[in-house]
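Sample log: DUF3307 domain-containing protein.
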Amino acid sequence: MFGADASVFAAVFVALYAAHEVGDHWAQRSAEALGKGSAGWRGRWLCARHVAALAGVKAAAVTLAAAVLALPVSPWAVAAALAVDAVSHYWADRRTTLLRLAERVGKGEFARLGDGAVAPAGTGAYALDQSWHIGWLFITALIACMGAN
């Protein structure tokens, strides 16, 4: 169950990281980026739609890497890993959740740095959001490697 080759982990992580960058920035629709943190069902729907598309991009990237590199990953482990990643991504992208966590751990001031309307990618909230996602990609890659031959 444990003890997957480190190169398998590295390849899966790189595939997930590349897919995250493409899916979170290029594949995400403007309406999702602007509305996924909104209160109510519309915000929840936009966030869920974004996360579903992002999970698809990540699944495609891991599948392609596994096929081209002959990675011995279990489809079930990859599916479970992507589900964990999707939940963590949705939780953070609802925005108030991540801001509350930032406040609790003393990062609230940093989270409020910058003007999200002018430069959303240059804010403290964006930096915390992306670091959250990348940290979960690490965990996702570890889960995806469970059961590798």
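Observation: The mean pLDDT is 92.
Observation: The chain has one domain: 6-144.
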